[in-house]
Design goal:
Blueprint: H1 14-21, H2 28-32, E1 42-48, E2 58-63, H3 66-77, E3 81-86, E4 103-114, E5 120-137, E6 143-148, H4 159-178, H5 184-192, H6 196-206, H7 211-219, H8 223-274, H9 282-296, H10 300-314, H11 321-335, H12 348-358, H13 363-378, E7 387-390, H14 397-408, E8 412-416, H15 423-427, H16 440-448, E9 454-458, H17 471-478, E10 487-488, E11 495-496, E12 502-507, H18 515-519, E13 522-525, H19 531-549, E14 557-559, H20 561-571, H21 578-596, E15 603-605, H22 607-614, E16 632-639, E17 642-654, E18 659-662, H23 667-682, H24 684-687, H25 693-696, E19 697-702, H26 716-728, E20 737-738
Parallel strand pairs: 1-3, 7-12, 7-13, 8-9, 9-12, 14-15, 16-20, 18-19
Antiparallel strand pairs: 1-6, 2-5, 3-4, 4-5, 5-6, 10-11, 16-17, 17-19
The structure holds adenosine-5'-triphosphate (ATP) and magnesium ion (MG).
Magnesium ion binds next to helix 14.
Length: about 750
């Protein structure tokens, strides 16, 4: 819009300056002295549709109509002056005298440019207001008889005029600042104009005036009057501008809040992309996660929670630490086998074959597993038993668990709970805890990938407990068939069904298993193997396993039973077969080395060869004292590694009744020693010993193998026997063993047998 308020039009126009410098016609200097201009009385008329050109203003005009183009041509061929008259109705195509206002502006054509589309672009400057007295020619272009309306130059100064001018300037500046385009340059230009008419024209040409208003102004010859009218228009405009600014401001505030965040986020994304940060495609991430969660088939409650968290995650900036926590949590949820069950192999013959394939003997355990299978076959919803294998090391507890899983066709997960002291290890940490993770149970389930694996809680007798909480209390819930269908891990914070899991615990001793845990388990004892059983295990399992593990063929090693028996007796001393397997393994390694360095098999291992390969025997049967001596008795002892014989030696010496005990004896055993002394005193006469021995003698009781701690009440009878033997100087039969508690008050001294 040519009438728009363009601050640049207040400043000297560059195009104008250009013309001025090149010496072409027109210029500010000349234009100011309009009354001296020789304006011809007849001028070609350029009718314009939507613009009023004020004096002194420079303005571009587009000329499209043919008649207008001819008028321009006429002007250019003569004085370059053109009369601009505004149409009363802009829609009229070929205006005649009645269609035009009669007051307009005489302009000077400063530049002309023919555009490629045939139109002409003019740059004109108003030089004088003028009145068309009459239209003297209508065709081929309009021509008018013109009378210039020179500006009244000498306006008497007055306080009122000063006030009007100041008001005009101030209002103009205010409008400009409301529109955010105020500048010192404009202020200077406004201040430099001291003629009210010119000030009025300058301001008017930059106001957004309606045609009728502009026309009214241009027709007002009195400059002061004109400025007054401009002031009126200005105050209206100021009001509009301030209202507009207000509306804009409040609209911007609204948009600001919503869009600021959006822009910042977009910017952040762009920055991340620039940095090669992969988080830019985190939208895909959450989408993947949503898919994975769907696939995991969470139970309804869990799914609700997961969806809630997913929504939170989506609303979060991707790299915040909280988002990472939620993402990890949702990944856990999606990776748990909520609905994945492996199919049980319910073929009992096949299962039995697999069990036999892995282990010799152990009929009780194998039967129990086959019973379980049979029940499962008849009642698929039967509860899984919680078995506990108790026995000395190396009897196959752990490997049996693995074999059971194989025979059932289930996944196997072993988790050692020995040394676990923290409840959170079993049940997980709450998510608020930094670096929180689910507990070992849930971790095993995820690793297994099914909801019904065999989980072995190995070494449950070595579970600890301290200030961090009691892990056995968490296990209580895990191992309770009534509760474990809603096992709640602190991290997951939602129930997970463990009722389909088959739990097997293992332990070396029963005493240290917390009582409530023990109550929930079905105990199966694996007592340790006899020499004969060990021989069979070696022949049928260990030999073939070790030869193939060490890269030998089964026929490479020829070894007969007597040699195997020697390995069992002289190189190992154990209830299980772990060391036996190790010794056979080391035998195989040595032969493998021979084979690898070129010696051809088969290798026959006889007794001589055995010594060469395994070295000197490690255990020789300790010959019990062939000759029985007074003060020595032999007891039987039990250790987790099996049975032992235990010598008790008592010697007496002159003294005052002191009792010395050596050989790392526990409190219970010390009390047993006291009881033995009391018994001997009580029964002195019957036993034919000196009833006052305790005041005359010191007694020293020693139990050899001093480094091994010993405890328990069952050595009581052996202690008493050795003591009485020493006091009465009667040897005990060397081939007699005994075990049992002693009770000094009873006539029949010992309970137990010997
Ligand atoms: N009856 C058996 N038949 C075949 N191999 C056996 C038998 N008993 C034990 N073994 C083998 O002995 C080795 C030791 O067994 P395993 O590790 O299961 O012992 P464990 O009872 O778990 O001992 P610990 O109490 O020390 O953990 C295994 O290689 C196992 O295969
Ligand atoms: Mg084990």
């Amino acid at each position: 819009m040519p009438n728009s308020f363009d601050p640049n039009s207040l400043l000297p126009d560059p195009a104008f300056l250009d013309l001025h410098a090149s010496g072409e016609q027109s210029g500010l200097g000349e234009a100011k002295e309009d009354q001296k201009l020789e304006v011809p009385s007849r001028l070609p008329v350029l009718p314009v549709r939507d613009v009023v050109i004020f004096n002194y203003t420079i303005m571009p005009l587009f000329v499209g109509r043919e008649a207008s183009a001819l008028a321009v041509e006429k002007a250019l061929s003569g004085s370059r002056y053109l009369m601009i008259l505004t149409q009363k109705d802009e829609r009229v195509e070929n205006p005649t005298a009645e269609d035009l206002y009669d007051v307009g502006t005489v302009v000077m054509i400063m530049r002309m440019l023919k555009l490629p589309d045939g139109r002409i672009k003019l740059l004109v400057q108003g030089v004088s207001r003028a009145k068309a007295l009459s239209i003297v020619q209508e065709k081929p272009y309009l021509e008018a008889e013109v009378e210039t309306l020179p500006e009244q130059e000498d306006v008497p100064t007055s306080v009122e005029l000063e006030a009007i001018m100041r008001l005009a300037r101030e209002q103009s500046e205010r409008i400009l600042s409301l529109r955010g385009i105020a500048s010192p340059d404009i202020t200077n230009v406004l201040a430099s104009i001291d003629h009210p008419g010119r000030l009025a024209d300058l301001i008017a040409s930059n106001l957004r005036l309606r045609l009728s208003e502009a026309q009214q102004l241009i027709a007002t010859t009195n400059p002061v009057e004109r400025l007054r009218k401009v002031n009126e228009l200005l105050s209206k405009e100021a009001e509009v501008a301030s209202m507009q600014a207000q509306i804009q401001e409040s609209a911007r505030e609204g948009i600001d809040k919503a869009q600021r965040e959006y822009f910042l986020r977009e910017q952040l994304k762009a920055i991340r992309k620039e940095l090669g940060d992969t988080a830019a495609d985190e939208d895909d991430d959450t989408e993947d996660l949503a898919q994975a969660l769907k696939k995991a088939k969470l139970p309804p409650d869990a799914e609700k929670e997961a969806r809630k968290q997913l929504r939170r995650l989506k609303a979060m900036p991707g790299e915040s630490s909280e988002a990472t926590v939620i993402r990890t949590y949702l990944e856990w949820l999606s990776e748990l086998p909520w609905e994945v069950l492996s199919k049980d192999r319910l073929n009992i013959t096949k299962a039995a074959a697999i069990l036999n394939e892995d282990h010799y003997g152990l009929e009780k355990v194998k039967d129990r597993i086959l019973e379980f299978l049979a029940i499962k076959k008849l009642n698929p919803n039967s509860k899984s038993p919680i078995l506990c294998f108790v026995g000395p090391p190396g009897v196959g507890k752990t490997s049996l668990g693995r074999s059971i899983a194989r025979s059932l066709g289930r996944k196997f997960q072993r988790m050692s709970v020995g040394g676990v002291r923290d409840e959170a290890e079993i049940r997980g940490h709450r998510r608020t805890y930094v670096g929180a993770m689910p507990g070992r149970i849930i971790q095993s389930i995820r690793q297994a990938g099914t909801r019904n694996p065999v989980i072995m809680l190995d070494e449950i007798d070595k579970i600890g407990s301290d200030y961090r909480g009691d892990p056995s209390s968490a296990l209580l819930e895990v191992l309770d068939p009534e509760q474990n269908n809603t096992f709640s891990d602190h991290y997951l914070n939602m129930p997970f069904d463990l009722s389909k899991v088959m739990f097997i615990c293992t332990a070396n001793v029963l005493e240290t298993i917390p009582r409530p845990l023990l109550d929930r388990m079905e105990l199966i004892r694996l007592p340790g193997y006899t020499q004969q059983e060990k021989l069979n295990i070696a022949k049928k399992y260990l030999l073939s396993r070790q030869t193939s593990e060490n890269g030998l063929k089964p026929h490479d090693l020829v070894i007969d039973d007597t040699v195997l028996n020697r390995i069992i007796g002289e190189y190992t001393r154990e209830a299980g077969v772990r060391n036996l397997e190790r010794e056979i393994g080391s035998l195989c390694r040595k032969l493998a080395r021979k084979k690898a360095s070129g010696t051809k098999g088969p290798f026959v291992v006889d007794e001589k060869e055995l010594h060469a390969l395994l070295g000197a025997p490690r255990f020789l049967d300790e010959d019990l004292e062939a000759e029985a001596a007074p003060g020595v008795a032999v007891g039987l002892a039990w250790t987790p590694a099996g049975g032992e014989v235990l010598q008790v030696e008592v010697s007496t010496m002159q003294g005052k009744g002191g009792i010395q005990l050596t050989g790392q004896l526990g409190d219970v055993m010390k009390e047993s020693a006291q009881a033995a002394v009391s018994y001997a005193r009580a029964q002195a006469r019957k036993l034919h010993i000196d009833p006052d021995f305790h005041s005359k003698l010191d007694i020293h009781i020693h139990v050899p193998a001093g480094a091994t701690p010993k405890d328990g009440p069952s050595a009581g009878v052996t202690l008493a026997t050795a003591l009485i033997s020493a006091l009465s100087e009667t040897p005990v039969a060397a081939n007699l063993c005994m075990t049992g508690e002693i009770n000094p008050a009873r006539k029949s001294a010992a309970r137990g047998w010997y």
